[in-house]
Design brief:
The protein has helices at 33-37, 56-65, 86-105, 118-138, and strands spanning 6-10, 13-16, 20-25, 41-47, 75-80. With 145 residues, the protein is an alpha+beta fold. It has a domain at 6-105: Double Stranded RNA Binding Domain, CATH 3.30.160. The strands form 2 sheets. The protein has a 3-stranded antiparallel sheet, covered by helices on one side. Strands 1-2 form a two-stranded antiparallel ribbon.
């Protein structure tokens, strides 16, 4: 049974909900009088640089991968105003936070450099010869007298 006081991001990372700062505000867009009276837009802030939930290695990786989404003090901000319910917007923004952090923690595989095989090189050169011959055949014939 999942613990309600933590956000399970990845097998090695659980963020306590106490580290997340939620704010509700009035949502924009259509909706008539409901929009003018309800604070359904939810904003979540998470301080990556001060979080006790992440190791130093994870912190550096998150700061590097999320650098465009962080403010000057290393805080991540996400907003949801897709529904008319504050609870559903809060669930949506929490799930998006979990997904963004989980995706940022994935370490991309290092590409192994490989050389093209002899057959691939031969096929490329043969293609170049064919193209060259086709272009040569389109030229005007030489008029050597």
């Amino acid at each position: 049974m999942p613990d309600a006081s933590v956000l399970e991001v990845a097998p090695g990372l659980r963020i306590p909900l106490g580290e997340l700062e939620f704010r509700a505000s009035r949502s924009g867009g259509p909706g008539g009088q409901h929009v003018n009276t309800s604070s359904t837009r939810v904003e979540v802030w998470w301080d990556v640089s001060a979080s006790a939930a992440v190791s130093e290695e994870q912190r550096q990786h998150l700061l590097a991968r999320l650098r465009r989404r962080l403010d000057g003090s290393g805080r991540l901000r996400l907003v949801s105003s897709s529904t008319r319910s504050q609870l559903r917007n809060r669930e949506d923004v929490t799930e998006r936070l979990r997904q963004v952090v989980a995706d940022a923690l994935i370490v991309p595989k290092v590409r192994k450099r490989t050389k093209p095989s002899r057959a691939v090189k031969a096929a490329r050169l043969e293609g170049k010869r064919r193209r060259s011959a086709a272009k040569r055949d389109r030229r005007r014939p030489d008029t050597e007298d």
